[in-house]
C-alpha cells in the first residue's frame, strides 16, 4: 500500500452519442489520490462526472482508459479483490420490497462470498438503527429507514472503503445526524469514507480533503482548510446605531445594505485592511452599535472554481 486507499490515473470515460450527436466525454483524464483513513469529499455540479466516477470504482461502469487501484489492487488485474475492498451506498433506493432487512443483508453477504459464520447482519442492523425492523418487509419501511438499509448493505462484506453517494438527500435532520454519527464511528475504526453531497456545509464539516470536478475534469484537490484559504474574501457586517443615510465606500470594497438595516462590506484581506474598512465607515458618519466578520465558506470556493465552466 502507498498510503492511498484509491489511486486513479488518466481516467477517461466516453459514451457513444445519440443519433446525430457525437460521443460524450464524461471523464477527461482524471488523476486522483484518496488518502487511506480519510473522509474525502468528491464535489461537483450536476453532470460533472461524479456518478460515472463512482460507478467505475464500484465496477458498474467500464472505463474507456486509465488506471484505477483500489486498496492496492489494480482494477484490471485483480477485479474481484478491488471490488471486495469497496462498499457503495447508492443515491437511488434500489431495494427488493419483498425482502426483510435481515434477509437483504444475508443475500448481499452471500453475493460477496462472506461465509455464514462471518456474517454480521444483526450487528450491522443495530449499527444503523434497524434492529426492531429486522423482520419487516422492506416495502413497509419509511424512506429514511430504506436509506439506513442501503448503508447496511454497503457494509456486509466489511469493506476498507465506503462510498456515500448523496447519502442525506431528502432526509430529515434526525436521520442525517444518525448517519454522520455512524460515519464518524466507522472512520475512527480506520475505514476510508468517500462522500458526494450537494450540502456543502456537510462537506466542510465532515471532510479532511476535497476534490472538485467540473465537466469531467478535476479543477481542485486539497485539504478542506487549504481550499477555504484560497478565497481571502471577508465580510464585515456593521450594525449602525441609527439608520445610515450614506453608505461607506473605498477601494476594493463591495458595500450592501441588508434587510435588517445592517451594512455588509466585503473586501479581500490581501488588498484592504480591516482598519481601512472601519475608517470608511467613520468617514461616512456612521456610528457603530455592533460589528462582526464573516469568512468565506466552501460554497464560495465551489462557485469560484466551477464558475468558469
From TrEMBL:
Top-level taxon of the source organism: Bacteria
Entry keywords, A to Z: ATP-binding, Nucleotide-binding, Transport
Keyword DNA-binding set for record: no
GO MF annotation: an example: ATP binding
Residue span(s) of domain ABC transporter: 6-240
InterPro entries hit by this protein: AAA+_ATPase, ABC_transporter-like_ATP-bd, ABC_transporter-like_CS, ABC_transporter_ATP-binding, P-loop_NTPase
Key word DNA-binding present: no
Pfam families in the record: ABC_tran
Classification via SMART domains: AAA
Chain coiled-coil ranges: none
The protein's name: ABC-2 type transport system ATP-binding protein
Amino acid at each position: 500500500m502507498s498510503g492511498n486507499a484509491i489511486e486513479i490515473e488518466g481516467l477517461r470515460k466516453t459514451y457513444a452519442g445519440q443519433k446525430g450527436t457525437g460521443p460524450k466525454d464524461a471523464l477527461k483524464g482524471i488523476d486522483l489520490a484518496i488518502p487511506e483513513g480519510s473522509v474525502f469529499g468528491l464535489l461537483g455540479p450536476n453532470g460533472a462526472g461524479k456518478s460515472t466516477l463512482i460507478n467505475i470504482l464500484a465496477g458498474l461502469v467500464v472505463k474507456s482508459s486509465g488506471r484505477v487501484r483500489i486498496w492496492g489492487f489494480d482494477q484490471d488485474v485483480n477485479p474481484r479483490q478491488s471490488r471486495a475492498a469497496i462498499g457503495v451506498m447508492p443515491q437511488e433506493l434500489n431495494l427488493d420490497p419483498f425482502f426483510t432487512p435481515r434477509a437483504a443483508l444475508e443475500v448481499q453477504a452471500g453475493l460477496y462470498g462472506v461465509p455464514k459464520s462471518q456474517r454480521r447482519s444483526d450487528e450491522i442492523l443495530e449499527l444503523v438503527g434497524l434492529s426492531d425492523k429486522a423482520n419487516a418487509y422492506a416495502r413497509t419501511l419509511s424512506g429514511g429507514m430504506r436509506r439506513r438499509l442501503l448503508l447496511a448493505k454497503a457494509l456486509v462484506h466489511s469493506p476498507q472503503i465506503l462510498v456515500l453517494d448523496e447519502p442525506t438527500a431528502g432526509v430529515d435532520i434526525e436521520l442525517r445526524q444518525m448517519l454522520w454519527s455512524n460515519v464518524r464511528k466507522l472512520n475512527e475504526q480506520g475505514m476510508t469514507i468517500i462522500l458526494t453531497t450537494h450540502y456543502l456545509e456537510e462537506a466542510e464539516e465532515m471532510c479532511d480533503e476535497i476534490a472538485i470536478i467540473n465537466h469531467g475534469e478535476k479543477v481542485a484537490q486539497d485539504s478542506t482548510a487549504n481550499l477555504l484559504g484560497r478565497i481571502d474574501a471577508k465580510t464585515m457586517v456593521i450594525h449602525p446605531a441609527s439608520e445610515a443615510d450614506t453608505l461607506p465606500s473605498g477601494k476594493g470594497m463591495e458595500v450592501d445594505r441588508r434587510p435588517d438595516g445592517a451594512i455588509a462590506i466585503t473586501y479581500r484581506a490581501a488588498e484592504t485592511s480591516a482598519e481601512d474598512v472601519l475608517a470608511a465607515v467613520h468617514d461616512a458618519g456612521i456610528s457603530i452599535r455592533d460589528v462582526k466578520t464573516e469568512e468565506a465558506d466552501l460554497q464560495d470556493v465551489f462557485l469560484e472554481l466551477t464558475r468558469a465552466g
